[in-house]
Structures are given as C-alpha cells and as structure tokens.
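The instructor's notes for this session suggest beginning with a concrete chain rather than abstract definitions. Hand out the sequence below and ask the class to guess, before any prediction is shown, which regions might be ordered.
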Amino acid sequence: MMWRKFAGSTCLVLAVFAAFGAAPIAAAEPSGQRDVSEAIAAARTAGRDVEATSLRTPTMTVMATPHGATYAYLRAVAMTELWSIGQAFPDGWNEEVFVGKNFHGRPFASRLFYRFDLGWIPPQGIANAQFLHSQLRSPNRECHLDSYGPAVAVAATEPFTSTTTWPGPDALASDAVSGYAHGASCGPIRDQVWDVTTGVIEARLTSSEVTLGMRSTDETDKRGYRGYVQPTGAGGQHATPELLVHFDVAPSVDSLTITPLASSGGAGLVTGSDTPTLHATVRGPGGCPGTTALTFCLSAQFELLAGGAVVFSGPMNQGREINGTLEFDAGLELVEGTEYTARVQAVNSSSGLTSDMAEVVLRYDAPPPAPEARLVGDPGLGQPILIEAVSHAPDVSKLCWVSPGGAVNPDGVCTATQPGVPMIVIAGTNEGQLWLNLGVYAVDSSGTAGRQTIIQAALTPW
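After discussion, reveal the predicted structure:
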C-alpha cells in the first residue's frame, strides 16, 4: 500500500520529558509490544518532578541522564485521521482514533498521521527513536497478543495539511511493523512500540519537523483494526502518541591551537608571542534543548599548566558559530624557555555533561632581533637589487624579505643563513621604480620570525 504526498502544518501542544538515570532501551522487538515500563516510568517521573537546575520553558522540560544522553518524550504538535471514504479529521474523530478496516459497521479503512517538532535536536545527535501509542482495543478476544491479524506499520512520511485526504502523504523510509493486539475487555492498556530510528533521522535531515504515519498492512482485513487513545481525549492511561528520542548531548573539543603560530610538530606548538591567543572549536552533537543556537548552552573552560602545576585557569570567550561548531578563545601570558600545557574542556550547561579534556603542549620562543641589512650599490634599470644582510641571533636559520608593513612569514621569500655570517641576497630586479622600500627579517630554527629592518633608498630608473 502506497502513501501519498501532501505538505503543511497545524499545531497542537509540544511537551518533552527526559529520563533521569534511565538506561538506553533497545530496538523494538518484531511484535512491537514489550516491557519498556522502567524507562517510560523514569521519564515521566522526571518530567513531573523537575529539579531547579533543569531546563524549563512553557512548552517543555528536559533532563539529562548522568551517563551522557537524554531521553526526550515528545507529544505530537499536529495530527490528522484519514478515512478511505474521503473524510478527514485534523484533530481526530473522537476520543478513540483507529487504524485499519473498521469492524463496527460501515466498511472503510483509516490511517493516522502525527507531526513532531525535533528542530532543537540535530539529526547527528539522535541515537534511537521509539514511537509509542496506547492501544485501547482490537478484534482480538484475548489479552495482549504479540501478533494478531494484519500488523500496524509506522513510517516517516512527507508532511500533511489540514486539507490532506486519503490516502495521505508518501513514505520517506521503510515501515516499522508491530502486530500487537490488545483485547477490548482486558486491562490495563499498554503502549504499543515501534522502532522508528531510521525514519526519524532521515526525515530530520531535511526538516525540523518529523511526520509519522500509521496504517494497517492489510486494509481489507477487519482483524487489522486497532483503536488508540486520542491525543486530546480523556480515555487511556497516557496522553499518547509520544516519540521517545534518545539523543547525545555530550559536547566535544574538535580542535585546539594558538595564534600567532610559528611552528607545530611532535614537540608541540611554538609561538613567537609571549601573549598568544588560545583557540578551541567545540561541537555539541545534541544541540541545546529548546533552541538551535549552540551559544545557549555550550561553554568552555581552560587551564594553563607549567611543570604540572596550574598557573592560570578560567572561562574562555565565546565566539561565532560555524557549521554546527562554536569557536572559543582565551589570551595567554607565557615566559620564554618554559614548556606549557593548555587544557580545554567543553560544558553543556543544559545537561551538565562535559567533554573529554583536550590538551596541547606549547612554548614561547622570543623572536630573533632585526638583522643588519643595507642596499649594495645603485642598481640600474633591469639590474638585480642586492641586499647585504647578517643576523647575530644564535639560532637563526633563514633571512627573509617583504614589503614593509607586510606580514612576516617563516615560509616567505627566504634564503638559508648562519649566525654572524654576512651574505648577499637578490631581492628582485629594478623594473623602473623610483624608490626601494623593503623589510628584511630573520627566522630562527623554531620557525619564529623576528622584527624587520627597513631599507629605503632612491633608485635610478634608467
């Protein structure tokens, strides 16, 4: 049976409850009905008994588990019930909605569609998604059969509107199937469960809202009838359906570096500044509950250690958000000849979860002093511009030149040299310019570029 495509939006209520301390639940068994009561009870208890440190908004409550994930219960923000005889009920027909072929009288089939708002949960953070609906009755005269007649299929679909009619939107992913059947005279009712992880992630990749559609796998067989608690009705033990999403909110530090950076390698990072800036890129795979802005809940702390002792620590300055990451920086003060370790840890304030500690070894090498440099002769038109230069820095490795005001670059226009050894370098050709303006600088063995010696001289343009 195919789904059909429509689009749109109608709103009801969103509520989110996260399980405090609940272990991740496994994928639903083929029957779709099993004991998830421990996780469900913990989630609902946490949602009712909210600690002062938990995130609370008028429409949702989110609490994190202490071991690195959050369980969120989402109620549908919109629904519609579609009948094969052409009728549609955007808020459900009555306190009981149903799927499959009607067995009370007139023969027709029904399908249900529900929309959930997952805009604050990035798709890459979703680890598991379970769809739960409290089943009221079926044609089954026994209690709680794992399989009876045609099963109920649930799939992520295209959106629907208030004017959508039978057969409803097209499916985006394969069906999750459950044959569970609750006897009408049996109690208490139970939540029927479908594992919709794949479909929810696929739908969330292209939209902030996820639509789930329910249908019978055989809409001509009355044994496939299943009645469910209407979301706004009085019947049943829960206000279902609900989408139980297990998502990761633990942040991570993706990169750590300093500027200015003279060199990097096995010995760590080397800077030519005694006041460099430490930069960290932080990622929050679970996002910030209630918002798409990472600045809402992500922060970073840093420590600077020397000889194993902390010499400075504090919060990092929050920067811009780029492609799902957040930039942070902090100013450092270093002493030449000392090896430091900089450590950074990211914090999600909504969940209280922290990243692993990221660290980098660094040191400050004072830049070599400006070299001695002078123009040799007066090059005529088309003649090479010769510069005599010498650096007395004990660890000098190169002499380089650049237009004054340009950035000194250890990998710029350079030539190898030795300490105290004068050398002649060719800094271009006289191409008719009237004035020479050149900066000459030394680079040491650590890759640290020093200050410039400025050479200014009039040239003969012929």
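Then share the key points. The chain has two helices and 32 strands. The first strand starts at residue 55 and ends at 56.
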